[in-house]
Structures are given as C-alpha cells and as structure tokens.
Amino acid sequence: MTSTAGSTTGRVVIVGASLAGLRAAETLRSEGFTGHLTLIGDEPYEPYDRPPLSKTVLGGWISEAHTTLPRQRDIAAEWLLGTKAAALDLPNRQVQLADGRRVPFDRLLIATGTRARPWPDKEQAALDGVCTVRTRDDAARLHARLAAGPKRVLVIGAGFIGSEVASVCRELGLEVTVTERSATPLAGALGEAAGTFAASLQRRNGVDLRCNTTVLHLEGDAYQKLHRAQLSDGDELDVDVAVVALGSLRNTEWLQGAGLAADGRGVVCDAACRVFDADGVVTDDMFVAGDVARWPHPLYDGELLVVEHWSNAVSQAETAAHNMLAPTTTRRAHKYMPTFWSNQFRVNIRSVGVPTFADTIVLTQASAEERRLVAAYGRGGRLVAVVAANAPRILTSYQALIEARAPFPPELHASDGPAELHPIPAGFPKRGQPTHDPGVAPTGAGPSTPEQWGEEEVRKLLDPRVPLSAPPLITRYTNGTSMEHTSLQQEVHTGEIRS
C-alpha cells in the first residue's frame, strides 16, 4: 500500500479519546488535515482531565462533570465513544471494535493509555466499598463514599495516587490507614531515600502508615459489603472503604497478534512517534502517544521510557500528529523532558527528569523554616533528575543542568545547601515490581527486548498481597497504635532540617 506520509487527506483513526487523543486531533486540524477523522474511546464521556480526580473531585471542590477538557478548536471528528477497540487488523487496515464494527484507516494513532491495576482477587474486588481511582465514574463513587463519613478508609499502595487519596481523607477529617509494600511511600517514583520525607509527612498529618506491609485479604459481611482487612503485619482492621492504588496497566491487549512491538510495557516507537513492528521495522503510517508509548530519550542511554505525565501526553500527541502529516524531511523528534507534580498534605512535590533511571541521590538544598528541600539524582557520574518539595521555581535551573549532562553530584554552592554533599543509594524497588505510579520509568532498550523475568518471579512481583520481605518488628503501645522499627524511624539529617 502506498504511504500517506505528508498527505493532508485520507482517513485518520485515533484509538483513545482522552487527553492525548484530543490534543492530537486538534493538532491535525490546526496543521491542515482535511480528511476524515475518527476518535474511538472506551468511556462514554468526551475527553476529561484526570489529575483533578484524585485531588479536587474527591475533596468535593468540583464535581467529576466539571473535568471535561476545554476544546482548542473544532476538530470536525466522528466520535465512537463507549466502545473498546478489540483488535487491529493490519492487512485490511481496520480497527475492530468490541461491538463487531470495523473502522478503516489510512493512518492510525494509538493513544489507549492505561487503566487502574485491580485487586487480584475478583470476589474481593467486587465487594461494596472496594474502589479504584482512574475514571470519572471511579472518582464520583469514591467521593460519595468519603462524603458519607466512613469510620476508616484503607488505602492499598502509597504511590502518588494513594498518597493523594490519603491526603484528601485527612483534609476531610477521616481516619485513614495506608499500607505500602516497600519500605517507604513513593518508593517506586522517588526511591526509598527520598521516601523517608514522604513517610514523615504522612505520619505528621495523622495517617496510620504501615510500610513493608501488604493486605492479605479483604473480607465482606453477609451483604457483600467490605468490613475488614487482614494485613501481613498480623493486624485486622475494621474498614468501610478500601482504595486500591496499585498503579496502572497499559491498554495493549487489543494489539495482541497484530504484529507490532507491543506488550504489557507499552507500544514501542521511535523519536518521531512511529510504531515499530514485531520485527523491529519502523512503520510509516502508525503512531503512538501518551501513557501507552515506549520511546527513546537521547539523555537516557537508549532506554525506552514510559511516561505517565499530563504534559508528556500533550507534547507527544502534538509531535505525533505533526509527523503524521509532515514529509519525512520535516518530521521532528519528541524530546520532552519528563516533569511531574503532586500536592499532598499541603506540600507541593515536583520532579524533572527520570528519577527511576538513577541509582544515587543527594540532598542539595533545604530550609527547615519553609519545609523546603531539593534532592538531585545521579547515575554514572551524571545528573539525571531532581525532585523538589515546596520549591517549584528552582527546577528550571536544574532542568538546564540535566539537559547539559551536568556532573553528579552537582556543585551548586547554594546558600541553603549543606556544607558537604553526601550521596547515598536512591533505593528504588527491583525492576519489574509494580511500583504503584512511578510516573516515568525505563523499560529496556530496543523494540524487541523481551521481559526480563520468569513466569513465577513475575507472578510474585505482581501480586500485591505477597510481602517483599519479612514483616517488620512491631511494638504495640497501650493506646493500640503501632510503629515499625525500620529505617523509617531513623532521623534524616540535612543540615538544619530533620524530617
């Protein structure tokens, strides 16, 4: 079939009607595409903004109906909403829908994103009171339950979503227990060294945080309503609501057998967002963008990154759409520097770069009075990422250092920096373990690189009920509370600041 590269006519199909899909469609029209445009989405709603769901929607500041994304222009598209893509028929250039319809295309953009990782036991997951937070409907259901004033909320997983849910619970005056399989909250995104700050933040705000702890069993009553949870530390908790915050799964199942370089890690593409086939040959009429894409960044040693960030979805969608219309000589590379932010417990946490690429971390700036700190991440003697708490404006200068491949540890001579820099291991979990929501992560190099784990090892790593180590030593107090005797008990000395 003749390539349609550089053409502004024909049939373009976008599978995925969320942020990336919408921004790609708008870019196509802005750059002169006059052909037939179809957007396919598995939810019945027009594209909406997901970040507010775990923040302002749960807190009751806005309703889920007010998260609809603004339109930058009329895209004159055919919308096929409420129906999943079931298969990709490459020989006939068609997307097969779950309802049996077939949608033909000349060019295809895959933007199917991710879904919430469910609780592994289906019967327990179906109990009244067990929730996830990914969709508008998820957020609406959980908001209603939190507004009803449950006696205790259990949050399973202390990644960004779990931590934000816990923060909202405390703002609402609700008792909340958070269980985390790793040694600290945010271990998958920031590493356990930085996670000690997040742990102290949660505990200072009244969260019953249980690290190195898993939930073994969720129990329902005679009416199939959740009422108890059994933990690996031996406790049984009476809970009304359990929020499963175990990270995400990429929506690639519909591509199985299609002949593309796609698996559970995502869909592999080149820097121009063109999809590779299963033999490692880049295609010219199929593109990918957003959370489902695996793409090479020039700063990260050929590793294919997956990036679950709002701004990356926008940037990559715009690049993919531009390249769908551009002649080969004018295509551009997607070089987005990953950035992310989260508000929790009245602290703003931001990152730039790829913390999960690092093996070492060092505190570079801190202020006890402003509860502010900045930590730099390194690998191979090079600065690769920075995370800041309550210091958003500082990241611009650090981003320039990352892009310039500055040495690690960085010599900043900052007035609020420590007298000496003391790099320590960053403490990221073993690759392959579900790390809740790492935000951005390397996934291996090359379009045909296989998964690196055996079936049994994968099963154990993916099952959130299996503790990673022996349960922590527990000291029980007369008031019934408990606290782990682990590294989280150690004070973090950062000059004047202690977390």
Automatic annotation (TrEMBL):
Protein species of origin: Reticulibacter mediterranei
Domain FAD/NAD(P)-binding span(s) in chain numbering: 11-317
SUPFAM superfamilies: FAD/NAD(P)-binding domain, FAD/NAD-linked reductases, dimerisation (C-terminal) domain
Residue ranges with Polar residues bias: 476-492
Signal peptide range in chain numbering: none
Keyword Oxidoreductase applies: yes
Keyword ATP-binding: no
Residue stretches spanning the membrane: none
Ranges of residues in domain Reductase C-terminal: 340-414
Cofactors, names only: FAD
Highest taxon listed in the record's lineage: Bacteria
Gene: hcaD_2
Pfam families for the chain: Pyr_redox_2 (PF07992), Reductase_C (PF14759)
Keywords: FAD, Flavoprotein, Oxidoreductase
Annotated spans, Disordered: 411-499
Gene Ontology molecular-function annotations: oxidoreductase activity, acting on NAD(P)H
GO cellular component: cytoplasm
Name of the protein in its database record: Pyridine nucleotide-disulfide oxidoreductase
